[in-house]
Amino acid sequence: MKKSKIIKTGLGVAALAGVGVSMVRAATTYKAKPIENANIGEEEKVDVERFIKNLSDAIKIPTIANRDESLVDWAPFDEFHAMLEKAYPIMHEKLDKQIISTRSLLYHWKSEHPEKEPIALLSHQDVVPVTPGTEDDWKYPAYSGEIAEGFLWGRGAIDMKNHLIGVCEAVETLLEEGYVPERDVYICFGHNEEVMAEGEICGADCMMRWFKERGIKLDSVLDEGGAILEAKVDKVIDGHLAGVGIAEKGHVDFEISVNAKGGHSSQPPKHSALGELSRIVCKLENNQFKAELTPQLYSLFNEIGKNTTYPVRCVMSNLPVLKPLITKICSEIPPVASMMRTTTAVTMANGSPAPNVLPQKATVNVNFRIMPGQTIEDVEAHIRKIAGPKAEIKMVSGKNPSKISPTDSRAFNAIREICKEMDPKAIVAPYLVMGGTDARNYEDVCDNIYRYSPFLMDTALLLTCHGTNERIPLTSLKDGVVFFKKYIKALTND
């Protein structure tokens, strides 16, 4: 095998951490002591049939949010709340429930030790809509909750009613078993995560402010973001990779415009407004942010490399020596390249209103996903340097990268120990989430924020998230609930 091919294979294995995620530290950085009195190795009871039925019922309810709340049909959200009350009667009897913001749900599971910092488990109720015109592309209707071919089908099966219902199943089962936590537990279900709502209408932000106003500091937060993915490359690696999100990339949209006189297309100038703008777009795409192989990425690749076969393992153990070659190869593999730099994506364009009219104004939208250590201001400076004085630049919306949570906390160590107990061959590694979650809204009340959804799937299934034929394997559901039960016990049995 040629050296470059070996390296590509090794880095491709790293990319199996997930589509749209980036590892920022490796398992070699773990420093925490084992969780005491956690009883992690105990067998956990799970009513799988109930989980399947309730998840199916949840998917049948199209809880679709909108940035403009006047356009939201609230009836499905009310139906969803009623469904949860019917499906989980003990949870709704024993836990205090309140509506925060418009339809966000906040549950409080009280302990006898309110002086201890509580934990919080997050999910969101809303799902993305089905793209108009693609309804017939679904093998089973998007809101059918169909159980067929070993899968549960429908919008929300992966993102993220599986996670939400899994948390409810864990809490209900623990209550059935008479479990009493030694510290308070909060269950927070936002209602508008998918539309990246902000400010007064953001359910997650409103819940964070509810905690802040009461002086409640959370011990830890667990939300979506990671998953258990099959890491399989023939004769290289065969295992499962559990990615635990410890931070999120930032995001920002900029509108870049060029103005011109316009006129009839029969007498065009050398460059129309759209032509000038196209040159700027090409320069932006050809002048990407610098990709860096950080020490953290070296550690990540080394951790994955430990679980590969020779000669990939040999190459992965000598990454510093091969830095120039690795940098070049990484730039050719989009999932890996996105781990290493702020990305640039030209997503929308607007020009003339008619084919024979020169545009008076041409505009493009460029979306950037910002690496930790950089800011929206850095992105704007980058654009202005490349675009030059002819371009108008306007920020549409954005958020800076989140803080990086530590890998030596009680919560992170519990996640690691539980994953290893459930699958001794699992590779557990922290990562940087490419997209956004509700979790980032909790930074003012919590330092230990993690993103992990404990359901096994392959990358092909992961790609159905927000797409056609979203579905989850029935075989992954039990372990998801087992994880949540063990996690709650590990962090509250102290």
Overview in brief:
With 494 residues, the protein is of the alpha/beta class.
Question: How would you characterize this protein structure?
Answer:
With 494 residues, the protein is of the alpha/beta class. The protein folds into 2 domains: 31-225 and 437-492, Zn peptidases (Aminopeptidase), CATH 3.40.630.10; 250-290 and 341-400, 2-Layer Sandwich (Alpha-Beta Plaits). The chain has helices spanning 3-15, 48-59, 75-87, 89-94, 161-176, 203-213, 273-286, 295-305, 312-316, 323-330, 334-337, 376-387, 410-422, 459-462, 477-492, and strands at 21-22, 96-100, 104-109, 119-124, 147-148, 151-153, 185-190, 220-223, 228-233, 237-248, 250-259, 263-264, 343-350, 357-358, 361-370, 392-399, 427-433, 449-451, 456-457, 471-473. The strands form 5 sheets. A 6-stranded mixed β-sheet has the order 2-3-7-4-8-18. The protein has a 5-stranded mixed β-sheet with strand order 1-17-10-9-19. β5 and β6 (151-153) form a beta hairpin. It is globular and about 80 Å long. The relative contact order is 0.22.
Quickly give the CATH architecture of the largest domain.
3-Layer(aba) Sandwich
Count of distinct structural domains: 2
**Weakly predicted, low-confidence segments:** 15-34
Quaternary organization? single chain
Q: Shape from CA axes?
A: globular
Distance between the termini: 52 Å
Instruction: Give the total of beta strands.
Output: 20
